[in-house]
Amino acid sequence: FLQQYGLIGEFSSLGYESPKDLTDDRPTGLTGGPWELSNSCAIIFFALLLDKKQSSLSKYFYSFIAVYLIVATQSRTILVSFILALSIYFYIINIDKKKYFLFVLLLTSIFSLLYLIVFQTNYLKMNLEIYLELLEMFKNFAFNFEGANLETLDGRLWSMAIRIEHWLVFYKQFLHNSFTIVFGSGSTFMYYESTIFRVLFGSGIFGLIFVIYSIKNISLHILFLLIVSGLSLDLLLSFKIFFTILLYFYIENKIKYDHRN
């Protein structure tokens, strides 16, 4: 909150940045970036829902903080993955139950209010046609091994265009020969900008199949949260996100163990 209104600076890989010299006006908290903060908050939100003994006041209060931080960071990938995961979560536990109706209504109201407060008018008036260019960009990436021309591309798509240029290097390494396609080309670079591509390009089809088998017991809503956010974010590179995910699974397994006994 203090960072968002320019009262204090933030710590990043560049060191401490004062409010006057910030490279990004989005809040980061004590994390390495807005994407890291929003992803951690999304996981913490679902960790809070695991505790059925907490009071309604506690549930609403901490849920509000988590949702506010997710929206304030303006991380579109995390926002989409969070809404999708939340929808799946409420569908699984049967959204028609009366005891969840008020919570869903309140959460929807919070999302709508924060969306209008945090995002500016220009963001609300985004042209859908601009984002449809993403399909053409991925088509050229997958079939033509081509990146996007930044000179003619809308500025809102530059982030994805830069990622695609980055992925092209790993994509060509992955397709080098039959061995690299099956077993991957290994970890040839620290930053992959995508968890999905890190697994596929780094460990190949074999590694991807192994990962799919390994995650078969993960809750569906958490799985969707990680998969969708992992499309354009390298979650495995963040220690804070890794620790938050580990904490979630620890709480989940502990609750299951306590109920079993």
Q: Could you outline the blueprint of secondary structure elements for this entry?
A:
Blueprint: E1 10-12, E2 15-17, H1 34-50, H2 56-72, H3 76-92, H4 98-118, H5 121-124, H6 128-143, H7 158-174, H8 178-183, H9 195-214, H10 220-229, H11 239-260
Antiparallel strand pairs: 1-2
Helix pairs in contact: 1-2, 1-3, 1-11, 2-4, 3-10, 6-7, 7-9
Concise description?
The chain contains eleven helices and two strands.
Task: Describe the protein in words.
By secondary structure, the protein is mostly helical. 64% of the residues lie in helices and 2% in strands. It is built from eleven helices and two strands. It has helices at residues 34-50, 56-72, 76-92, 98-118, 121-124, 128-143, 158-174, 178-183, 195-214, 220-229, 239-260; strands at residues 10-12, 15-17. The protein has a two-stranded antiparallel ribbon with strand order 1-2. Helix 1 packs parallel to helix 11. The longest helix has 22 residues, at 239-260. The chain is globular, with a radius of gyration of 20 Å.
Total helices: the number is 11
Provide the structure class.
mainly alpha
The 3D shape can be described as: globular
- Secondary-structure element pattern, one letter each: EEHHHHHHHHHHH
Approximately how much beta-strand content do the residues carry?
under 5%
Low-confidence stretches: 120-125
Q: What is the makeup of the main sheet?
A: 2 strands, antiparallel
